[in-house]
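Schema walkthrough. Field components (list of strings):
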Amino acid sequence: MSIRTFLYSLTQGINNFFKNRLMTIASVTTITASLFVVSMFYCIVVNLNFILEEFEQNIGIAIFFEEDVVENEILTLKNQLEARDEVFEINYISEEDAWKTFKEEYFKGREDLLKGFDNDNPLKGSASLQVLFSDISQQKVLVGLLQEEEIVRFVRESQEVTDIVQNVNSLVTYTSVVLIVILSIISLFIISNTIRLAIAIRKREIRIMRYIGAKSSMVRGPFLVEGIIIGLVGATIPVIVIYFFYDNVIQKISTEFFLLRDFLVFLPVEIIMAQLLPISLIAGVVLGYLGSRVTVGRYLKV
Amino acid sequence: MIRLENVTKLYPGSVKALDDVSFSIDKGEFVFIVGGSGSGKTTIIKAIMREIDITSGQLYVEGVDITRIRRSKVHKLRRNLGIVFQDFRLLNNRTVYQNVAFALKITETPRRTIRKTVPMLLSMVGLNKKANMKPSELSGGEQQRIALARALANNPPILIADEPTGNLDPQRSWEMMKLLQEINMKGTTVLVVTHDKEIVDAMKKRVIALRNGRVVKDMKRGDYVHEH
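Field assembly_structure (string):
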């Protein structure tokens, strides 16, 4: 495409965008609506995943040891575990720590009852390693390995909770992928139809251009530009709306579901935008381009 | 300039629109193609401008076998052909000036040249005073002259007019013919498709007569061939 054709396409495309107001509004509205639904869904999915991830990281296992095991052996195991990818965090809780926490939790305000235990630790032999996972699906494997270790007395795990979280997680992921795909296809269909209509209105002009010797790129150019602008505008509006209302909605949810406050951690709007903005803009450009490209092609065959 | 060799065009349903048609038109000629409806006149124009593909035979325009050019290169052929369509094919939402300028714009003519050329073309067809009007505000004859100005915009070596007098009263028809003759005198090859007997008889130009898709007569200075 020569520079002149490009400039012609650009000015003509922009002109058409403003001149065919009704068609433009219809197309932009359609794209905005479709991408708004997709974007909203995207926000929900991303946040749900984030919440589940956070939740996952709070489910861990506790490893308890045989009585004759010395602290050094436990710390060696701790170092070995720390090197593993699926381990997110590992804490050593010595017998003393365990007793201290126990005292604080159960004898707060009744310290007099503890007099008899002065130098005695009833929790002797209860030193443990608390393991949190970055990848919870690996829990089972690790527990299996640990149970074979000689120094390990038993491993307390929370497999049921883990299973539930994992199931919810994959359910959300699969459903969201399917829904986003379906919505995208529907959007593409609606958009290409809208643009098809916009071009059909001008098929006479396209034909005349061809009859009097216009290159294909010259005919196609303005429509592609127009399609891309429509796509871009249609993609920008939902992003702007989400940007300004995201915080409000989160605030609302947090107050409505007060009891779940500890579980409901949301991603900040900046992080959402960092992904949503490029995805939306690219989607808008691609949708606009494809929609007009396919449709103009039909009328070029004269 | 234009050469048809054994050109046959079958439309779906085996309708023979052109049946083994051969003739050639030299540079600078003024030729009438005559015949009743269904004789194949319009099909010839469509074939020459590659709006349709012929079924068999060869068709040369300016030495190029146009049956072999790719669709993406068709615009090059059409820039050599100025065509005045029977239905004018004007853009009704643009002014007279814009309609003519449009032809130059799409051939990527510099703006300065467009600003010089369009008024010249419009004064040649006598429409310079109506440059800012829309085609729909003008008469059929005037619309046709817009189409003529547009066809000539890119200075094509060949001008084709499809029934240029079809919608005109006798006086306007003559004016149009005079205009075409002037253009021909300047060296442009002119091909006029018509069924206007009076005009053909009076002009004394070469006449190629078609009937049922076949060439029935080709006369150097002929008359309209009557159908029997």
